[in-house]
């Protein structure tokens, strides 16, 4: 595209392309896509149960897989945008894919032949399983809508920030971007979900289609105003180069340690003094020059057999964070389980507020999002500045993540107590349903914990990764969330196979025991996290301070 090499004319981005003139187009697209996504995603479990007769736990599993995919796709989309197509092409094509997916879901709610017409209820009636065609439309719609949302999610933030050269304006854009994303999600998870529950699924889904379509059109209308960043080599490519070069030279003995490759423009002193670090020493072979690896001008002749020392060290910085990432996976997995099962709990509880209003079950998880948004503001504007004045120390990412761990396993313990009370009322009082408001306390605790640990993880990875891997640090956050949803799916399936805790009728199960197990796992994982932090500080040492953070 001709605009790919266009340069912004001022620090704010004002000129022929870029700047604040692009802001309404990008923000409107962000709002539209997030409203549409929340409208179909948050109520998917209920739709699968009510319209396709799916087992309640199976429906929750499909929702978990869908959430995992939505968070995994951004990693792939970032690679495609950085290396091949650019953010603009990935964003508009993702919006189109999302639109097609929601259209398929809307068709399943509109055309009778695309969903089963007779469902079993309480073991009575004539059962009709969905046909292959019905499953094809259903799962095809879910897959396309998930891929589209994931592809758009990070790249539209990137293209928005690229409209400004000054970091001041970039930060202003990000503030508005995340605010819009949260507000859009809340609107979709409440207003559209209410329409689906109280008007019709067809009307609700076609509202999602309309909002998604408007978002796509608005984004394309701004194309002549956008600044298009020049495509560069993706940092993911250099990481793969290190892996391949290490494997190809795995049998090579390191004899001459002065023959490290620093790049075609490295001077003699740099070559002699800057040897690779000894940690993860097996990776150093990737930077060792062998015959035929370089050309006469000292440039790389075989990219898949030789890397620079800096590329190897960048890969090591990623390796050092993997234990911390693993603790984050086991922090996020219980949250994924809790959110998916809370919808099933809500369906089995009294959701009435007054005589005429009933809270949609699919809107219950939005409590976590609202709580997180509120407490992020409280922390950044009041709590953390007050802490720094009183204690004289910053609230470091390590501390934020640690507090998030504690609040999460406490929230799981409260969730277990609430479920125990719900089950006792159902069994002792002949099916009595307690109020859905009993779910609020532990969801609020989870939301406060997320306000601590999620920004802490983003900040930690961003600070600790070298400049060349900043985009990888962002993708790593999404990858951790994706893995957590996939792990939660596997754990739920394991528990279903080995215990009687998760039957189709949760009133006959023991979700409370499931929560207690996760609470205990959370305590153990917190200890593991503290151990990882200790080893990380010991391994990295003063290099942490060099990245701009103090972790004392």
UniProtKB/TrEMBL annotation:
Instruction: Output the superkingdom of the source species.
Output: Eukaryota
Membrane topology is:
Multi-pass membrane protein
Coiled-coil annotated spans: none
Swiss-Prot/TrEMBL keywords: Membrane, Transmembrane, Transmembrane helix
Q: Which Pfam families match?
A: PTR2
Write out the transmembrane intervals: 20-41, 61-81, 88-107, 133-152, 173-195, 201-221, 324-347, 359-379, 431-455, 475-495, 515-536
Q: Where in the cell is it found?
A: Membrane
Family of the protein in this entry? Belongs to the major facilitator superfamily. Phosphate:H(+) symporter (TC 2.A.1.9) family.
Q: Could you identify this protein by its name? A: Protein NRT1/ PTR FAMILY 2.7-like
Native organism is Solanum pennellii (Tomato)
| Organism placement in taxonomy | Eukaryota, Viridiplantae, Streptophyta, Embryophyta, Tracheophyta
């Amino acid at each position: 595209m001709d605009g790919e090499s266009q340069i912004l004319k001022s620090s704010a981005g004002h000129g022929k392309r870029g700047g604040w003139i692009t802001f309404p187009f990008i923000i409107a697209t962000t709002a539209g896509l997030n409203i549409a996504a929340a409208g179909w995603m948050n109520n998917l479990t209920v739709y699968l149960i009510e319209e396709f007769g799916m087992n309640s736990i199976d429906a929750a599993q499909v929702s978990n897989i869908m959430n995992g995919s939505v968070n995994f796709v951004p990693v792939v989309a970032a690679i495609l945008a950085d290396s091949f197509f650019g953010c603009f092409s990935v964003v508009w094509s993702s919006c189109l894919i999302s639109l097609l997916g929601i259209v398929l879901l809307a068709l399943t709610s509109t055309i009778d032949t695309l969903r089963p017409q007779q469902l079993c209820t309480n073991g009575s009636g004539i059962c009709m399983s969905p046909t292959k065609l019905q499953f094809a439309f259903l799962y095809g719609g879910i897959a396309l809508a998930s891929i589209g949302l994931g592809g758009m999610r990070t790249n539209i933030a990137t293209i928005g920030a690229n409209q400004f050269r000054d970091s001041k304006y970039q930060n202003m854009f990000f503030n508005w971007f995340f605010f819009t994303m949260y507000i859009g999600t809340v609107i979709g998870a409440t207003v559209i979900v209410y329409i689906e529950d109280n008007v019709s699924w067809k009307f609700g889904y076609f509202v999602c289609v309309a909002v998604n379509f408007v978002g796509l059109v608005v984004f394309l209308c701004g194309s002549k105003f956008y600044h298009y960043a020049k495509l560069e080599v993706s940092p993911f490519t250099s990481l793969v180069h290190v892996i391949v070069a290490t494997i190809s030279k795995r049998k090579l003995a390191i004899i001459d340690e002065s023959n490290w490759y620093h790049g075609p423009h490295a001077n003699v002193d740099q070559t002699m003094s800057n040897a690779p670090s000894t940690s993860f020493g097996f990776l150093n072979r990737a930077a060792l020059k062998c015959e035929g690896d370089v050309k006469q001008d000292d440039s790389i002749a075989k990219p898949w057999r030789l890397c620079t020392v800096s590329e190897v060290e960048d890969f090591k910085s990623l390796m050092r964070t993997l234990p911390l990432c693993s603790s984050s996976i086991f922090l996020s997995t219980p949250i994924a389980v809790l959110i998916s099962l809370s919808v099933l709990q809500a369906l089995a509880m009294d959701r009435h507020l007054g005589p005429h209003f009933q809270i949609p079950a699919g809107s219950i998880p939005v409590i976590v999002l609202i709580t997180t948004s509120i407490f992020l503001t409280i922390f950044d504007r009041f709590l953390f500045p007050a802490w720094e004045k009183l204690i004289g120390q910053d609230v470091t990412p390590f501390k934020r993540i640690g507090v998030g761990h504690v609040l999460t396993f406490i929230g799981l313990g409260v969730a277990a107590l609430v479920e125990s009370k719900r089950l006792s009322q159902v069994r002792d009082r002949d099916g009595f349903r307690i109020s859905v408001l009993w779910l609020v306390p532990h969801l609020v605790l989870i939301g406060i914990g997320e306000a601590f640990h999620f920004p802490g993880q983003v900040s930690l990875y961003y600070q600790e990764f070298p400049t060349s891997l900043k985009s990888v640090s962002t993708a790593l956050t999404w990858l951790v969330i994706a893995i957590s949803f996939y792990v939660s799916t596997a754990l739920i399936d394991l528990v279903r196979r080995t215990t009687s805790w998760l039957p189709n009728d949760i009133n006959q199960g023991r979700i409370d025991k499931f929560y207690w197990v996760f609470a205990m796992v959370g305590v153990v994982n917190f200890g593991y996290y503290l151990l990882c932090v200790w080893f990380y500080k010991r391994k990295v040492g003063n290099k942490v301070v060099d990245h701009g953070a103090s972790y004392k």
